[in-house]
Amino acid sequence: MGLLEYIGVRPQAMDDRSLVIPTSWRLLSLIRIRPEDIPSVVESGSAVMGITGLDYVTESGASVNVIERLGFGRGKIVVAVPYGSGVSSIDDVKDGMRLATKYVNITNSYFSKLGKRIRIVKISGSAEVMPLLNVADGIVDVMSTGTTLRLHGLKPIGVIMESEAALITPRELSDDEKEFVDKFLILMRGALASNGRKLVLMNVPEEDLAAVLKVLPAMEGPTIADVASGRPMKEVISVVPEESIPDLLPLLKKAGAKDILVLSIEKVIP
To answer: Quick one: CATH architecture of 75-163?
Structure first.
């Protein structure tokens, strides 16, 4: 929802019970459903776009296009076992080992390729407790930091796949739908590209311009324009990584830059 609002898609009159939400875009409504159901809904053509995890797309086997990886909701699908189990790697997994998971298809495919015949305990809720209850010998689940696994006495022994939030569409779109998706993508990619970047503007005496440009990062290159001043002066504009700002500003001042402005960027459209 934060990404959508950043793009300019603002929900109207949303509360926790709302499943269909009108937005500030006249032709766009949001449908809020379980993330594991989104690939099937998009595949059917009932929704033109969907945002869900790549793990759910893979697990569903839905025929959809993954248009863009969005860079948030990152995690890994891992195999985890209790400490002291004697299993330290995927190579130690024996035929008949019981693994609790909601990722049935991903797990089956992974171990089939390894030639291992495991037993799957299909669940829909928390997997971490299953080894404690002796329902399973291990689990296959999503891991972000590993804290939840450690709290339940589990350790990861292998990574099956990496996942993150992604934008998906049906395989077939009408011309009007393609046009709408393209418009959305331009704004979304612009919003994502602006993340972690700042606009830096400064005045630079002409004799110091070469020294300033030497230390100033830029995308394609800085913009340089004349300044109406009593002495030869240039305005220099550049888009720079936000993390460079603390080190960059003293260097710019030392090189001769004056009147430096650092501004936030809403969107960067390549």
So the answer is: 3-Layer(aba) Sandwich (3.40)
